[in-house]
TrEMBL record:
PROSITE patterns, per database record: CIDE_N (PS51135)
Sequence segments annotated as region (Disordered): 292-321
Protein name: DNA fragmentation factor, alpha polypeptide
Domain of life (superkingdom): Eukaryota
Domain CIDE-N span(s) in chain numbering: 3-81
Cited SMART domains: CAD
Source organism (scientific name): Mastacembelus armatus
GO biological process annotation, one example: regulation of apoptotic process
Keywords, in A-Z order: Apoptosis, Coiled coil
Amino acid composition bias (Polar residues), ranges on this chain: 292-303
Coiled-coil regions listed in the entry: 150-177
């Protein structure tokens, strides 16, 4: 029976090393591939780790001393000697490694705003490239420490933080105004599409009308036939009606709408409540749009007014000639 031999295996980079006990060279290859993560189907070459001697003979393998270290080479991998630093320069490499480690530890422990302050100290123009999160980090930084990091006076650092906060506030206002404008445009587009939809004939209910274009008015309720169709047959009808129709529904009240729709009080009350909420929301949107337009209009009308005043000044001159 072949004696089991303890040995070591590593990959070509020597970063992985495992201890094994095997009976043969073939068993060394199998267990070594499993330990190093090689595919069992890939061919491997066994060499001595210290000098790269290829080991292919079973008898030679058995003659090697215990705990011999082998290197398994996969595919195009080749053996290379260990890179050693001579004794005269080893202390320099060691100090360099320690210095790099200390530097990494120090930077990783620094506050995020310290890194941003260092960038600003080197070039103040980098503030243009900073994200809103970076700007908010600088705003939240302790003012005395920020001033010290930037080499500013504390009052200058405070002014910088106030300016950054105003920039963030302005961006947020612009974003909200844009979202509000988009919401308003979507609502208008939705109403226009609903008004352009072809109407249908609705049997049953008060004031049945054979509708061809949806614009005929029901003599009993006073609503257009298209409006009655939406109220009776659509899901969330309050979102499909025009503002004028919503106002009319809310004005009539629960009792009148019960007779118009032929519903019970609970269902009719729920509809009127939804219409009131939708009407209030639309009015708020209109007010917001008017506020935006009022802020824009003075800038747009300033130039024509100035031009008119200049023309009025020039007219007497032309008359005198």
């Amino acid at each position: 029976m072949t004696e089991r031999k303890p040995c070591k295996v590593c990959n070509f980079t020597r970063q992985k090393s495992y201890g094994l006990v095997v009976n043969s060279l073939d068993e060394l290859k199998i267990k070594g591939c499993e330990s190093l993560g090689f595919s069992p189907s890939d061919p491997v070459t066994v060499v001595l780790e210290d000098d790269g001697t290829v080991v292919e003979d079973q008898a030679y393998f058995l003659c090697l001393p215990l705990n011999t270290k082998f290197m398994l080479l996969n595919k195009k991998e080749t053996w290379s000697p260990v890179r050693r630093i001579d004794g005269g320069t080893a202390w320099m490499a060691r100090d360099s490694v320690l210095l790099e480690c200390d530097t990494v530890d120090t930077s990783s422990a620094a506050e995020p705003w310290c890194l941003l302050a260092e960038q600003l100290k080197q070039d103040l123009a980098t503030i243009i490239l900073m994200s809103e999160a970076d700007l908010q980090t600088l705003v939240n930084a302790p003012c005395p420490e920020l001033a010290s990091a930037l080499g500013f006076q504390e009052k200058q650092a405070e002014d910088l933080q106030e300016t950054l906060q105003r920039v963030l506030d302005r961006r947020e206002e612009e974003r909200q105004s844009k979202e509000l404008l988009q919401l308003y445009l979507k609502t208008v587009e939705k109403e226009n599409k609903q008004q352009e939809k072809p109407s249908q004939y609705i049997p049953g209910g008060a004031g049945d009308v054979d509708v061809t274009d949806g614009m005929e008015v029901d003599s009993v309720s006073g609503f257009m036939s298209r409006t009655l169709m939406v109220l009776k047959g659509k899901t969330s009808p309050e979102t499909r009606l025009s503002t004028e129709d919503l106002q009319m529904v809310v004005t009539k009240g629960v009792e009148a709408m019960e007779q118009v729709l032929g519903w019970d009080r609970v269902r009719t009350s729920a509809l009127l409540q939804a219409c009131e909420v939708e009407l209030t929301r639309r009015l708020q949107q209109v007010q917001a749009m008017q506020s935006i337009r009022s802020n824009i209009q003075p800038d747009c009308s300033r130039q024509p007014s100035e031009k008119t005043s200049e023309e009025s000044k020039e007219k007497p001159g032309h008359g005198s000639n």
